[in-house]
Every structure is written in structure tokens, then in C-alpha cells.
From TrEMBL:
GO terms for biological process: phosphorelay signal transduction system. InterPro entries: CheY-like_superfamily (IPR011006), Homeodomain-like_sf (IPR009057), HTH_AraC (IPR018060), HTH_AraC-typ_CS (IPR018062), Sig_transdc_resp-reg_receiver (IPR001789), Tscrpt_reg_AraC-type_HTH (IPR020449). This is Response regulator. CDD domains: REC_YesN-like. Coiled coil: none annotated. The modification 4-aspartylphosphate is found at D54.
Length: 537
């Protein structure tokens, strides 16, 4: 626990430090302040449970501090230690939540009793707060989740309405005689970045909060119900069944979300459909309305379904720019990559309308082209290579305010292509590295009598340089590398019962059968014959 001692006289603060058995009472963090104003800053920062304060101090006295605590920090337990036996001061202490009023000079036992009482009071309040919070959490989780499930079922199986119609009428005022309605989908994609970050660790709380805001407007005029759709990870649905204007109520909801979170959301809304049988159609229409919205128009947030198919003014394909972008990636120049991507971005900017589906199609084209380029550059080795950068999962490029950002789209592409270019260059450098050429040479000539000197002569390098660099690159001696290859080949040949041990030895580069058997047993733990007996079918 934490405590703070507020008194303008240092000897009084020192006396309190000496008189209270802090360790015995479980208080291990003790702060001091010479006046109320300094105390407020420390209280905000450290959140002490116990507060000792004098009443008469410069800058800000104890009376003003008690008033501030009563309003801004009611959970703290305050003990007043004063040199004035004044009724008004005592009354002020009680009025603003002080637990005790102790006169100076301080009596040790009286002070200890006051601290024990304050600790007990704080723990009792804390237990009650926790129980209340837990109860609220459980109620807020169970009850809404139940109704979310019931309402979600209406989208997939409208016939379930009859079995729960009376419950809906009692809970939401939904008249059983309602024969038509509309469905709206609230998209959380376009929430501001700061809001998403704030709720990153508790996204359920964000859904709960926005759903409550929607229902405040809907239930006031019995216009509809907002709920989290169970068959989607990021959708809040609004079932509109009232007689009022859907446009008006959705705009009110927009304003309500803005006033609480200072962020706006996009809402797709269906045409009027029969209720409840038309709910699946309404859900499809609302989803289409969201996907067909023009991302350039960031000020338009309500998107009604029009029934008209999307008809872009000028079709644009990412593949049209594939050759230019591929050449820039192969150049290894970030500047060239930026120039090629910029040409693509300029073409996108000339479009009158961009929809989410169009962005997804372009990203799919990019992913297919990228995979093709990797196979061209890395060939059959691609499946064996580690850390090959793949295309990221498609994400709508949104700025801090939740609006579509062509600049972020550009940076995303440049970053993806730059990483691919860097990996390609590293791969090429690896292939051209003489040490890897030596490794390839060993792999192709393992069955011959290869010596370090022969390799040095073949590659015009010193034996010492080859040994040192080979060990640095492969973390194994060249001779052990050769032995491992020979032994792996030998294991395969031993599976053939018609080959003699001597023949196998010669085929993997050992002229001496006994030496081959000795090396084999040392590295494999058994002789060639034993290996053959165990592994042959």
C-alpha cells in the first residue's frame, strides 16, 4: 500500500514517519508534500490509499485539499493531523470524507489506531468496488450476449422469430405486428487509429460501448435494435423496424458515436424488406452498400443500397504496371521502386471512384504477380528457403482519422516491394558467394577423392581462407561437411541388398572399406551391416 504525508513542517512529517509501524501495516511506499498543491500532483501520480494532512499550510491548506479529494479522489482515506482544536475544521473534515482528526502533538497509539481504521475502511470499499465491478461485468457479458445470439439467428434463420417474439416485445418493445424493416451494418473499420489502439486489448468493450450508444437512440423512439452480429468478427447490426426516417436515426447515431469517441463510422443500410423473412436479403444489401461506397468521399458516412452494380468509369488493372514494377524490384534501387509505384498511384488518383472490392482485386493481382516473380528468381529452392517475405494480408489503408489514404497505400506497396528486392539481392549475393560455390562443388563431387588442397587449387584460394570462411558460413568444418554428405548417400545405397559394403564405400568416395565402416559407425552409432539389417524391409 501507499501513503502520503502532507504538512509544511518537516519535523511533523518526520514524527509521523517514526510513529506509524509502516511494515507491520503493509505500507511500503511513503511520499511527502509541504502543501496541498504539491500533494495533489503526487496523489495523481502515485494513487496513495492513505493520506495524512495538516489543515493550515501555505499555497493550499488542508481544507481545500479535502474538498479536492472528495471530488476527484474519493477512494483515498484521509487522516487530519492539526494543531488547531477548531470545531469548523473538524466539521469540514467530516463533511469532506476525513476519517479522523488528530491533534498535535501526536499520540502514537491514537495515530496507529487511526491508520488501522483507515486501512480497514479502504479494504472494505475496495472489496465492494471489486464485487460491484465483477457483478456488472457478468451482467453486461451474459445478458447482451444472449440477445446478440438470438438476434443473430434471425439473419441465418428468420423462422426462429416466432419462438422468441414475446421475449423481444418485452425486452425491446418490438411489436409482433411489424411486417417490414431495414437492416444496417455499422463498420468499425473506419474508426480512428487512436481509438482502435485504446481498445486494442479489450475490443469487446468497444463493441459493447458502441452498441449501447446505438440503442440509446433506437430505444428512445422504439425505432429498432442494435446488436453485435455473432457470425462476423467486426460487425454491429441495426434492425430498423420503426416508422421514423432511417436516414435521420442513423445520422443521430453517427453524432452520438462522435460525441463520445470523436470518431465516425461508415454505415451501410438496406432497402425495406419483409420482416422477418427478408432479413437475409437485407443483410446482403447492407453489406454490398458498404463495399460499394466510394472511398474518395470521406465525408459521406451513410450508404444506402441502390441496387445498381458498380461501374467504374475507367477500368484499371495492376497487371498493366507489372513489368515496370518488376524491373524496379530487380534493379535493387529503392528510388526506382518508388518511381514505379508512383506511376501506379497516379493512375489510381485519376479514378472518380474506388471501392473496397477494387482494392482487394488489385491486391490479389499484386499477390499473384509477386508469387510468380519469386518462383522466377528463386526457382525450386523457394520452398526450402527461410524468411522469404510474402505478401501481407490485405488491409484497408486508413489514416489516423479512419479515412482511406492513398499515401498509406503507396507506402505499403513500396515497403513490400523494397523488402522483396532486398531479399532477392541477398539471395543473388549468396548464390555468387564463392563459399557456396565450394559447397555445391562438394555436393557434386562427394564420390571423388576430394581434398582441401584440391579445392583450393580449383578455386584459386588458400586452404586457410577456405577453412576459415567455410566454418563461418556453415558452422561446420569442410571435412565434416563432406563426411555428412557421403554418409547420407551411403545410407540410401545400403538399402539396396545387392550392393556389397565395399561397393557402397567406393560409390561414396571411400576406397578403404574398413575405413568407411569405421567412419560410418563413429557418425551413425552402428556399422553399415547393422544399419542395413535394421532399415531394410
Amino acid at each position: 500500500m501507499k501513503a502520503i504525508i502532507v504538512d509544511d513542517e518537516k519535523h511533523v512529517r518526520d514524527a509521523i514517519r517514526l510513529l506509524v509501524p509502516w511494515n507491520e501495516l503493509g505500507i511500503d511506499d511513503i511520499r511527502e508534500a509541504p502543501d496541498g498543491q504539491t500533494a495533489i500532483s503526487l496523489i495523481k501520480e502515485h494513487k496513495p490509499q492513505i493520506i495524512f494532512t495538516d489543515m493550515i499550510m501555505p499555497v493550499m491548506g488542508g481544507a481545500q485539499l479535502l474538498e479536492w479529494l472528495h471530488t476527484h479522489y474519493p477512494s483515498g482515506k484521509t487522516i487530519v493531523i492539526s494543531g488547531f482544536d477548531d470545531f469548523q475544521l473538524v466539521r469540514h473534515t467530516v463533511q469532506y470524507g476525513g476519517l479522523d482528526y488528530i491533534l498535535k502533538p501526536v499520540d502514537a497509539e491514537q495515530l496507529r489506531s487511526a491508520v488501522i481504521k483507515a486501512i480497514a475502511s479502504w479494504r472494505q470499499d475496495e472489496d465492494e468496488r471489486r464485487r460491484g465491478q465483477q457483478l456488472n461485468i457478468e451482467m453486461n457479458q451474459i445478458r447482451p450476449a444472449y440477445w446478440d445470439k438470438m438476434l443473430s439467428n434471425l439473419i441465418t434463420d428468420p423462422s426462429t422469430f416466432e419462438s422468441v417474439a414475446d421475449s423481444f416485445a418485452n425486452e425491446y418493445g418490438l411489436d409482433r405486428n411489424v411486417r417490414e424493416g431495414r437492416l444496417a451494418i455499422v463498420s468499425l473499420d473506419t474508426l480512428s487509429g487512436s481509438l482502435k489502439q485504446k481498445f486494442e486489448s479489450n475490443i469487446d468493450l468497444l463493441f459493447f460501448s458502441i452498441t449501447n450508444i446505438c440503442n440509446e437512440f433506437l430505444q428512445a423512439g422504439k425505432q429498432g435494435i442494435a446488436y453485435r452480429y455473432w457470425n462476423s468478427d467486426d460487425a454491429i447490426l441495426i434492425l430498423l423496424y420503426g416508422q421514423g426516417s432511417a436516414e435521420r436515426i442513423l445520422n443521430d447515431i453517427q453524432q452520438g458515436i462522435w460525441s463520445v469517441f470523436h470518431s465516425r463510422v461508415d454505415i451501410g443500410v438496406s432497402n425495406v424488406q419483409p420482416f422477418p423473412s427478408g432479413l437475409p436479403t437485407a443483410y446482403t444489401e447492407a453489406g454490398i452498400a458498404l463495399r460499394r461506397r466510394n472511398l474518395w468521399l470521406t465525408d459521406k458516412k451513410i450508404h444506402p443500397y441502390t441496387g445498381q452494380p458498380s461501374n467504374p468509369s475507367a477500368p484499371l488493372s495492376f497487371s498493366d504496371y507489372a513489368e515496370l514494377i518488376q524491373l524496379s524490384v530487380r534493379s535493387g534501387s529503392k528510388e526506382q521502386i518508388e518511381k514505379s509505384v508512383q506511376q501506379w498511384i497516379e493512375a489510381v488518383k485519376r479514378l472518380d471512384s474506388i471501392e473496397i472490392g477494387q482494392l482487394e482485386l488489385w491486391w490479389q493481382e499484386y499477390t499473384v504477380l509477386r508469387n510468380r516473380w519469386q518462383h522466377e528468381w528463386f526457382g525450386d529452392r523457394l520452398s526450402d528457403m527461410k524468411n522469404v517475405p510474402g505478401a501481407s494480408r490485405f488491409q484497408l489503408p486508413l489514416d489516423e482519422k479512419g479515412a482511406f489514404s492513398i499515401a498509406l497505400w503507396r507506402e505499403l506497396l513500396i515497403g513490400e516491394l523494397t523488402r522483396l528486392s532486398e531479399h532477392m539481392l541477398a539471395h543473388q549475393q549468396q548464390d555468387n558467394n564463392v563459399i557456396f560455390e565450394i559447397a555445391k562443388y562438394i555436393q557434386n563431387h562427394y564420390h571423388q577423392d576430394i581434398t582441401l588442397q584440391e579445392i583450393a587449387n580449383h578455386f584459386y584460394l588458400s586452404r586457410e581462407y577456405i577453412s576459415r570462411k567455410f566454418k563461418q558460413e556453415f558452422h561446420v568444418n569442410l571435412s565434416d561437411y563432406l563426411s555428412n554428405i557421403r554418409l547420407e548417400k551411403a545410407k540410401l545405397l545400403l538399402l539396396n541388398p545387392h550392393l556389397k559394403i565395399a561397393q557402397v564405400a567406393a560409390m561414396v568416395g571411400y576406397e578403404d572399406e574398413k575405413y568407411f565402416s569405421k567412419v560410418f559407425k563413429k557418425m551413425c552409432g552402428c556399422s553399415p551391416n547393422e544399419y542395413r539389417k535394421v532399415n531394410q524391409k
